[in-house]
């Protein structure tokens, strides 16, 4: 492992919670009669982020993400443990934190830049770039208290990413602002990451975590729940979210759900972990060793998933397709509880978990309708694979409708490989769509020379 930029050693943070605001005052006057409760927002966090890496932090509301970032940014002190950050930190935490509402945008840029350790000349040299990035027009010379929340975040982000940070800490800020600005932020963050800035990125947007981060950590109730590749961590996160929604995490506290299920189904289907999805997902070279992950409320289950080639053949041990081959994804399902409706869908994902192709029966205007226990049905999706020649995984899922919990969701149900095009064309992007190209030569060399 290379040089470590951020290291946390047994970091814990305890907040005091007072029943009433006046109790906080009472404690100051009568320190021995405190009525505060202790609340541990973080417990024993051990983490090392190598220089130049981007770490994504995910977790449910209240899991301790912001507390962790504030400790790293130095705006909160840990109760116990050691924090070490190697390099100049630029933190984009709460909206406009670090801004003085009475100052203009311009004054705040200088104020913030100085706080971040830049000289007046360095900020002046960067000012036009910052103002251009924020793109808030004449508002740059208005007090920031008159700004909309979108303007606030534009300026805050512009400062944070343009002050040569060595460590960048970003909390959800990209969620604010218009689409154009979000794209600009993403591009800038990528450029910073490419230039070797160590980044910590908190987000509820699993796509952004998968796209931007080298690794991820999931916090749960103040502790590290899991760490690993962004995709693996997001899968665990989604699994936990679903389990919590179903109340399966703590059956003892959810007797009605368990009793209700046991009342009409005694099979193993509803007990403990979902059954392993046993479809082979390995190719002969053993490249496809990704384990399937499964979650859902089990009202219906996916029984089998296959991909047929353009000839309608299925080879479970050799899922290799030609570039742009038309394939058929076949999903077999069985219903266990009455369903008022049913949507079945899929994603084809790259190795980072980015969704490249995907659709579902609803979006394709196919109404499955009501289903009864015991019914079995098959959904087939036919589509082409104009994809870069690498390996892909398939996620399949079904739910009663868009708002309900999925009844079954299987990540990595299958893994397949796409071959390079026969034509020898290099595929430079993720997808290669049909296109036509035209070149119009406006003038020839001699005409240009004559004009010159
Ligand atoms: N100053 C404080 N005093 C008391 N409790 C606090 C304080 N700050 C945070 N907490 C509590 O610590 C826990 C973790 O909060 P934190 O804001 O770090 O969570 P989070 O994961 O960032 O949540 P979210 O996704 O909602 O932003 C929460 O239960 C929160 O109520």
UniProtKB/TrEMBL annotation:
It comes from Chroogloeocystis siderophila 5.2 s.c.1. Keywords: ATP-binding, Nucleotide-binding, Transport. PROSITE patterns: ABC_TRANSPORTER_1 (PS00211), ABC_TRANSPORTER_2 (PS50893). InterPro entries: AAA+_ATPase, ABC_transporter-like_ATP-bd, ABC_transporter-like_CS, ABC_transpr_TagH-like, Bact_Polysacc_Export_ATP-bd, P-loop_NTPase, Wzt_C. Signal peptide: none annotated. GO terms for cellular component: membrane. Residues 23-246 form the ABC transporter domain. One of its GO terms (molecular function) is ATP hydrolysis activity. The keyword ATP-binding applies. This is ABC transporter ATP-binding protein. Residues 287-297 have a biased composition (Basic residues). Residues 278-297 are annotated as: Disordered. The keyword Isomerase does not apply. CDD domains: ABC_KpsT_Wzt (cd03220), Wzt_C-like (cd10147). It comes from the Bacteria. Belongs to the ABC transporter superfamily.
């Amino acid at each position: 492992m290379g040089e470590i930029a951020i290291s946390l050693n047994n970091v814990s943070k305890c907040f005091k919670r007072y029943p009433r605001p006046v109790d906080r005052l009472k404690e100051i006057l009568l320190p021995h009669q405190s009525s505060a409760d202790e609340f541990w927002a973080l417990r024993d966090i051990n983490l090392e982020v190598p220089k130049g890496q981007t770490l994504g932090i995910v977790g449910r509301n209240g899991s301790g993400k912001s507390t962790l970032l504030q400790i790293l940014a130095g705006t909160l002190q840990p109760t116990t443990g050691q924090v070490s950050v190697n390099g100049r930190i630029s933190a984009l935490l709460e909206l406009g934190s670090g801004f003085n509402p009475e100052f203009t945008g311009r004054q705040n840029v200088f104020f913030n830049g100085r706080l971040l350790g830049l000289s007046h000349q360095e900020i002046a040299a960067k000012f036009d770039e910052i103002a251009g990035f924020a793109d808030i027009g004449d508002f740059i010379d208005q007090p920031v208290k008159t700004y909309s929340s979108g303007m606030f975040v534009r300026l805050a982000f512009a400062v944070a990413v343009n002050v040569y940070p060595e460590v960048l800490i970003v909390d959800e800020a990209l969620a604010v602002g218009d689409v154009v600005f979000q794209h600009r932020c993403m591009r800038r963050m990528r450029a910073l990451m490419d230039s070797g800035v160590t980044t910590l990125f908190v987000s509820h947007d699993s796509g952004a975590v998968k796209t931007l981060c080298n690794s991820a950590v999931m916090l749960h109730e103040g502790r590290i729940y899991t760490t690993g590749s962004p995709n693996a961590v997001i899968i665990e996160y989604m699994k936990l979210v679903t389990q919590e929604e179903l109340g399966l995490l703590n059956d003892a506290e959810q007797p009605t759900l368990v009793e209700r299920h046991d009342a009409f189904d005694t099979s193993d289907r509803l007990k403990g972990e979902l059954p392993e999805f046993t479809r082979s997902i390995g190719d002969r070279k053993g490249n496809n060793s990704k384990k399937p992950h499964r979650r859902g409320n089990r009202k219906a289950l996916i029984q089998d998933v296959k991909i047929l080639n353009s000839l309608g053949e299925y080879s479970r041990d050799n899922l290799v397709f030609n570039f742009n081959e038309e394939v058929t994804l076949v999903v077999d399902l069985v219903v266990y509880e009455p369903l008022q409706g049913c949507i079945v869908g899929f994603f084809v994902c790259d190795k980072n978990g980015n969704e490249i192709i995907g659709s579902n029966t609803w979006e394709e205007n196919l109404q499955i309708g009501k289903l009864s226990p015991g019914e079995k049905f098959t959904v087939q999706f036919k589509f082409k694979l104009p994809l870069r020649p690498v390996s892909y995984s398939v996620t399949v899922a079904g739910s009663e409708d868009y708002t309900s919990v999925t009844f079954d969701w299987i990540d990595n149900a299958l893994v397949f490989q796409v071959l390079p095009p026969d034509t020898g064309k290099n595929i430079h992007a993720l997808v290669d769509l049909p296109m036509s190209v035209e070149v119009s030569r406006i003038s020839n060399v001699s005409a240009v020379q004559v004009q010159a």
